[in-house]
Amino acid sequence: MALAAASNPRLDPPDRAGPAQPLLIARDLKKHFPVKGARGKAVQAVDGVSFTVRKGETLGIVGESGCGKSTLARLLLHLVSPDAGELVFDGDAVGVAGGIALNALRRQVQIVFQDSYSSLNPRMPVRDSVAFGPFIQGRKKAEARDIARAILGKVGLDANLFGPRYPHELSGGQKQRVNIARALATDPRMVILDEPVSALDKSVEAQVLNLLRALKRQLNLTYVFISHDLNVVRYISDRVLVMYLGRVVELGPVDAIFEQPLHPYTRALLASHPSMDPARRIEEPPISGDPPNPIDPPSGCRFRTRCPCAEPVCESTVPVLGEWLDMQSHVAACHMQDPKSGHSKAGEA
Amino acid sequence: MIFYILRRILYAIPIAFGVSVVCFSLVYIAPGDPLQTVMPPDATAETIEIVKHAYGFDKPIPIQYLIWLGHVLTGNFGMSISTRRPVILEVTDALANTSLLALFAVPLSFSIGYAMGAIAGCFPGRWLDRLVTGTAVVGVSLPNYWLGIVLVVFFAVQLALLPATGMGPSGSTNFHILEWSCAKYLVLPVFTLAMIPIGILARTTRAAVAEVRSQDFVQTLRAKGLSEWAVIRHVLKNSLPQVMAVMGLQFGYLLGGSILVETVFTWPGSGFLLSKAIINRDVPVLQGTILTLSLIFVATNLVVDLLQSLVDPRIRRA
Amino acid sequence: MSDIALDKPLDSFDQQVAPATLVRGYWQSVFYRLRHDPVTLFFAAIVMLIVLAAIFAPLVAPFDPYKESVISRLKPFGWKDYLLGSDELGRDMLSRLIYGGRVSLLMGIVPVLIASLVGGLLGVVGGFVGGRVNTVIMRAMDVFYAFPSVLLAVAVAGAMGGGMGNGMLALTLVFIPPMCRVAETATTQVRALDYIEAARATGAGTILVIRYHVLGNVLGPVFIYASSLVSVSILLASGLSFLGLGVRPPTADWGLMLSTLRQSIYVVPFVCALPGAAIFVTSISFNLVSDGLRAAMDVRM
Description:
The complex is a heterotrimer. Helices cover 31% and strands 19% of the residues of chain A. Chain A is of the alpha/beta class. In chain A, the strands form 2 sheets. In chain A, strands 6-7-8-3-9-10-11 form a 7-stranded mixed β-sheet, with helices on both faces. In chain A, strand 7, helix 8 (202-219) and strand 8 (222-227) form a beta-alpha-beta unit. Chain B is mostly helical. Chain B contains 13 helices and no strands. In chain B, helix 1 packs antiparallel against helix 12, helix 5 (87-122) packs across helix 11 (270-279) and helix 7 crosses helix 10. Chains in contact: A-C, B-C. At the B-C interface, helix 1, helix 6, helix 7, helix 10 and helix 11 of B face helix 5, helix 6, helix 9 and helix 11 of C.
């Protein structure tokens, strides 16, 4: 089946539902990991996350470590199957009858992982790692190798020089380029980048980010870019989604998020970012302590245990992510944003 | 801690059951009618009928297993075909003699092996390292029954210093460890039995000590101004759990290895009993001895695990 | 930071950092290391010698190993043409030792091969599938772990009544659990790595992922472990023969020869010790070659 689809591009038109159709819609995704030895308890890694990704944009996802970013990335590819919720890829529901099959989804969505070491098979020359995707999807071995050569060149690695090497013979930046090449080898429309530059030196990070931007324009890609580094997210994203303990707390265009954050958590995240200006050096940490245990998250608003503005309503009611009108909407899941919530500061911000 | 002990004991129970199932099935993998393997060949038709009924050989196999398990739990391992004595008596007598060997062989091999490994690990120098690695390779490659024969050739045949086989004229009933006339029969079997675990233990200890020494906290200890001896004490303590695990396994090796060593020295222990049972096709004795030795091994591993958790608190939490 | 213009070739960043190292494949680097390891090479040569002598025993052996002679019983080294003396039935020791290698090597290698196949398969499947399947497989293996290896081999071979086939079966049974554990550990480690997920993300099914991405990384540990088991297997096999659970007389086999010659240590002590020496040399050679292989194959990447 994969072979037929790959050899006949008309069965797989690049843009089915037109430019207005979001490339990916995630609705109420949930993933709870049961805790061993504790019956009924589960790590609520992703708990009701909804968002859309427009064709051609870069959606940044930020949050502290452990907030469910990586689980979300794996959910988007069904590498981990969600407990609840649905995915719609270019108008087709994923993994349901009459929708788009998982294999077809995986041909169009690819992923780049953070750890450039463990994401390449140590016993395979990198050329073969890159060629594996096209080969699996029905290309002949020689064809797949040609694709690998071309794509390695595209990510800035000489295929003759680097292709026959093993991962341990490459630097971190080079390995991450190979990972990007591997993701692009199957000619995807969307790439999920799970902390792609977090393990790299700052100088290499800039090179890889620029490469990603250039590739995106050249190949008409759509990115979901996951990172805990606010600078990186600001640099590369068009829109930003902020996650806290498995839920979306804020979503909006990148400038709005960074200039006028709505949610106290987003504000705290931005404030905890060390400033270049000595006059604005922060003495007190704007956010203290570690995130609560995701096995037993706080009721109501999950941020209330660390929030300076917490009030009884935050404990009793789960705040909803405000009304989402279009791609430029800037919304936050906070009672202070909802005039009818009963929070004393509601409507002030 | 108590929770850990209980959990670990609970885990050992299914293993013990598994062991009993394997031992039970030994009768059935033996060629021919299982009844023949537990009966003397000259048994009358009447006795066969009685035994057949008593052991439930006319019932389905799971029921037979339960009947057998019931017998075993009450200490009834059946009758030896060759001596017509209860298997349980044969096994306990033999086990007492094997314990005598183990009583000397275990401390001897464990202390020498551990000391060699610890010294090599603490003072990594070329010749000592090589000695330990060399001893270890020789230790794992040496057939211990052959070592026994070579020792007999030298010490009993050539030099005529020590007796070659047996437990002495008085046998096992009047064996006094404190009298040289008896104790000299122990020397060669104990030494042979102790020889092989020394190498393995030295190698493991050396690796464990070297690994602990490379950890950052050792640098911190030195930076704190501790003397090298105090540092070594910390290192040895931290390498102990790993070493203990190997000691447990090596104890099992001694149990198994005693088959061959006791055969060479005709030492009337459990191993010699086994080899006699094999020659006489005495399946009840074979089954009883294997079951007893394996259960001792299961119990030893349990004890080692518990001791390990005393030394290393991380194990309790895992 | 300005964006890179697309008309410039994208490969302009990285050329300067291309290291000038010689690109060498995995197996090339393994062989390179082996070539520079004289100890391993020496013992590998001994192993080759023993194996060749066993294979070509009829050509190499000076006498018929089964030809008995009443007058030349239990003769010392160098008596007449008997380079290594003769045994209790007057058969030439050297010839019997050469022929004995056949059985000993066979019983050393065949069980390890079968156990690697069966145990390796169980381990890879258990490790990759995980969950309940893995628990069932590994608990069953734990039961066999509860027996000291010699005991298990003796129990099974003893109950089945000895003989070469039964002995090999018993040894195979002894080696399956540790083999399975090695394969399972390696598979579980590999399975958790991102490149397996990346491979699944391209749409590869379980079998393809195992074939291209798991096996290559599990084969190494399995092979290294199997090579270390050969020497254990030779020792156990000759132990079984020594107890009378291996081949039956008059077949030449080192363990059996040691057992029958044991009665004659007062007559020709050194001749009687020879079969044991053969076991020892073979076992230590396989051990050291296995150690060398382990060191050479441990190309940490």
